[in-house]
Queue: 3 jobs
Job 1
Amino acid sequence: MNPDLASSPLICSCYQQVAANEPLLFIGNENYRQIMTTIMYGISNCDTIKKAKKHLENNNVDYQFHDYRKQGLDLALLTELEALFGWEAMVNKRGTTYRQLSDEQKQQLDKELAMTLMLESPALIKRPILRTDKHHLIGFKAAEYDAIFA
């Protein structure tokens, strides 16, 4: 086997693992791609999350799903996501949670208040958030997902 293949993580539609501790042996298909770590963040009962998950599954994209309600949302993760997107892009102004904020909260919304509110109520965060090793997206548009995973 090519030593470069043995040391790099690859995926192929046609492979055989010789033994549990052996590298994968590729059989006949050279159309492999680098494995990406893909994580989708959101809330499982959200319709947009359901559409995005279905899209990834229909396109054979392996991903992990982080449900804010089940796995939680802490300040470290929220801060990391805010650094990628900015708090303004993360606030879902179309959702019920935002509409339920008082007029005073909406008028005074700044980074500090937004971060506090998103920690208290993760449903306030626009969904889904998708992260790969090289890309990060907020919201779901099939064409953007296709561009990443093509």
Job 2
Amino acid sequence: MLLLSLVVILTVPGTAGSAVSSQLNPDKSQTMLNDGHHDARDLASTVQHDRSWESMSSDDLNPQQTEIPPDLFGIVGRDPAYEYASNPFDHANDVNRTFLENKVAEMAEMGVRWMRFEFRAELDEPEGPGRIDWAKHDWFINDLLPRYDIQALGLLGSGVLGDLDDTYMFHRINEEPDSQGRNHYSETFVDRVGQVAERYGSNIAAYEILNEPNNNQVLSWETGGDVEEVDPLIYGRLVIDSYHAIKEASPESQVVAGTMLYHNQDGDHLHLEWLEEVYASTHIEEYYDGEGRYPWDAVSIHPYFLSADGVIEHMHELRDLQSSHGDDQPVWIT
């Protein structure tokens, strides 16, 4: 089974030539752009076209003949939590609803149909994993985005647990796991995933589990550059448990795994080697043997540093790896 991608270069206000990738899949269409508030590496884009591509060759894909789906565009938006108390005159003890409404209205007018943002725990508790201040998210997720027909892609990354308490600093994720692949950090992380999913249900259309776990900047910072990747065995168990927690609370929400950073070193695609180890990890293999599928609805990647042609070529490589493990879930470029 072959994945084909069409890459277009677009520029929107606040961005420099943002790559937009379209992915052929019979179900949905998504593309994400950076809105200028985040680092360019947070550029997120996914598009899926309504046609079968199982027997398609690259010669069949002509960008001049490809119909643009109505929900083509998405944006990596400034996290709504940052707007809490930013306008104390008009919105005391609340998010700046005026700013957020104007922002989302303009996004909708542009044709945006997805927004990616991150959940972050509060950093005001010296002990414990912190808390999610729901007041910073509820109105935005439950009211604002639905009114403008924009779907939420929620990133559950290292910030989902507060790290004032050293016990919950992100590097703890790699502590020795038990026989089931879990440790204290990963169990606490999954508990937090369940809390978010139970609160928002299908108003979060999809969740990504961690951000760039194969080459993570936070891990590198916390370990002085000694460690950059989450242990593939621990990540595999984390995704399984997160998948169960999300699906139990909201069966319609999609779970996106991988979220890999493209990482080429001396010609070796280290991110694909990392994903290979996830596929080969004990608990992922057991899950696949028992369920006949993997505990995710899509695999995502950040193919930064590549040309448009390079992105297309690399999607073939990623798809070949998936296919070698019987994984037919779509690829999202986020």
Job 3
Amino acid sequence: MNHFAISAAVTAVATLLLAFFVISRNTKSYLYRVFALYSFSITLWSACVAVHGFAREELLALVAAHLLHIGASLIPVTFIHFVFVFIDHGEISGARKKVLQGLYAIALFFIVVSFFPAFVSTVAPRYGIPFLMYPGNLLYHLSVFYFCTCVAYGLYKMFMEYVYSKGIRHNQMKYLFWSSLFGYIGGLSNYLIIYGINIFPLNPYGTYAVTIYVIITAYAITRYHLLDIRIAISRTVTFLLIYMPILSIPFFMGYWINRLWKGGIGNIGWFFAILLEAILAPSGLYFYLKLQKKIERRLKAKKLEYLKTMEDFLEEVKHIRGLNDLVDLVVAETKRIMDVEKAWVYLVNSKWTEQITNPENKFEKEIPGALINHLR
């Protein structure tokens, strides 16, 4: 079994779905667009690798070998682009913009030279692959160096953010860093095998790690709101659950009708399948819209509850004139909304510092010293 090609095909589908999930959630978000571009780059690369691995003709394998380097040139720079945007919370500093401009220029250069005949020397049968490419001239080796350097730098920046971040951000970076590291180690097998370095299980199973990266990233997205795309995921899953039976059942029924009625009138089974799908498709759309509306209402219920609570809180604040009454309200609402036993308000300005606890023990109990040190 050609796992080199199969794993690449699986990766292409998985990263394409991940890109679709993200971009369908919010096309205006800079972070989402960059992440989708990064995922599409992996899709382009892995799809060409799959064609290269499955190719039974030398010319097709050679063409795919050149084309896959378009994605291979874009992956490292879009990876760094995503890391910069994520670390900078949607904005990129001036110095990093210049770095990105330089990296995109280098990527464009390698995309252009990847079409030169000398970039890939030849293709030949190796490791059970019908026509596997051989590295070409010096430019090819420089493209590999560019890829590895960019990925190492991006992983380093991601690791430093993981080490120094806290709370939800720390959990986000934990999943993002380790899944990316795992995926790139697996993807590295595609370069190793081209250079004749055959390490089991990296060859032939390494590229499956990229699919695992997609799964872990998708988990981080839903569990820790790495990218808030729960509604997009629910729409896609709902669509697949409804339309997969609608499209597949008539197909299999048409197939079996043709087999059972071999002496019948032409391909009557396929005519029946098309007719049945034409009838079921509108009803499927009706059930999809109805079911999706209920799912989205549940997903948004908690958010709407918080918004209603904040609206009520702001309405009460309008009628408060004293600082102590305001603090009492803030503490009470915080305990109720967050479902905690204790809450404090710590007020500081340049002239004085005042600690206020819950209404019953105002000014008597101090905020824990460790918390004050953290706030300072």
